[in-house]
Amino acid sequence: MADHSLTSLVLIAFPPVVLWVIFWRRRLAEPEPTHVLVQLFFFGIAAALPLFALRGFNFNFPPLVLILVFALLEESLKALALILGTELNRAHFDKWEDGFEFALIIALGFAFVENIFYFWQTTGAPSFWAVYIFRSLGTVLAHTIFTGTFGYFYATAYVAKKIVPLKKHEKPLANFFSNFGKVLRRPLHITIFHLLPRRDSAHGHTSGEVVLEGFLLAVILHAIFNALLFCKILNQNLTPLVVPILLGAAWWYATRFRRIRKSAQKSSRAKLSGRASDSRLGRRRRTADRRAPRP
Length: 295
Description:
The chain is 74% helix and 1% strand. The chain is mainly alpha-helical and 295 residues long. The radius of gyration is 24 Å and the shape is globular.
């Protein structure tokens, strides 16, 4: 394969981003305005730049440590980009699915830069197109799932009043150490007992607690993904296990969005039906008034 210029690498890295945006936005009940998404995409690009500045150094750590460190670092950068993007677009952040959509676009911006880096590394190699297909489909989807999970929790922290009552709302990083201690004492408690079974919380959790648990879960998922890519058991490559895991996660989110969209459509039809009924009733009253005998 002939060498590619940076411009050509950017051009071939962009179509997968567009396809994933179309795929996910078609499943959302109320997608956000384009100018908001463009801003978030550039936040995702900016979040990736510090990471690739570090890749120029040689870290002599065991592979397991690197797997954990890079999962933590990447999710931290994307989480900060999401917090910033949300604070700047608070007027557009009012539904559960907004958390996933904001996170999705930031993840795509991040993966866009990451893909350019890996495409550049394999330029001219026989494996270029294999890397291109795997990263455009598998790795990009993985980033949207990891960061989308954090976005899901982030939205829950401010939208799900039966899990986080208004009196427990706080800035995402407020009381950081206190909330982090709660998350460590009861790891994944909110995930297992409230979000997955969709069960209310009797006493409620703070926003910071929910945000930190979402971040922890995103890091765990990312670390598992990295481990499956780079580790072997009994000389067996574990990469094929990535496919069913990613597809299962994507199916869960897509099913959730379908349920939300149907609920929104049903609500919209009910409102229209109510307005039509009110309009008919008004017409009948006006007709009756006209026909009534005047004194």
